[in-house]
C-alpha cells in the first residue's frame, strides 16, 4: 500500500488501522515494525492516542532507525494471539 494520505503526507498509525479495517475488515489490536510497537490496544488511553496520531515516519525517527522507503508491518487482529502474526503476510507500505 502507498502509506500516503489524501494530503500527500505520510499516514498516521490511525490511518493505517482505518485502511486495514476498511479494506480487509480487520480490527488490529497490535501493529509492529520489527520489534518496534507502533500500536497496542492494551495500552492506556493516553498512550494509545499518542500511538494513533503519530506518522509512520515519526516512529522510525524516534526509534533511531534510518529513513526507509518501504516498511514491512506486522499485525495482530482481534481474536488472535501474538503468535498468529507469523501466519499472515506482512503489510508492505511505501513511504514518499
UniProtKB/TrEMBL annotation:
Residues in domain Ubiquitin-activating enzyme E1 C-terminal? 10-83
**Top-level taxon:** Eukaryota
What the entry lists under InterPro entries is as follows: Ub-activating_enz_E1_C, UBA_E1_C_sf
Name of the protein? UBA7 enzyme
Amino acid at each position: 500500500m502507498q502509506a500516503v494520505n489524501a494530503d500527500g503526507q505520510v499516514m498516521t498509525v490511525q490511518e493505517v488501522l482505518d485502511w486495514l479495517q476498511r479494506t480487509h475488515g480487520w480490527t488490529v489490536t497490535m501493529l509492529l515494525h520489527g520489534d518496534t510497537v507502533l500500536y497496542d490496544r492494551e495500552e492506556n488511553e493516553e498512550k494509545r492516542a499518542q500511538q494513533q496520531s503519530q506518522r509512520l515516519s515519526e516512529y522510525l525517527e524516534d526509534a533511531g532507525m534510518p529513513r526507509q522507503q518501504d516498511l514491512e508491518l506486522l499485525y495482530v487482529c482481534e481474536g488472535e494471539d501474538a503468535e498468529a502474526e507469523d501466519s499472515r503476510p506482512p503489510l508492505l507500505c511505501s513511504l514518499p
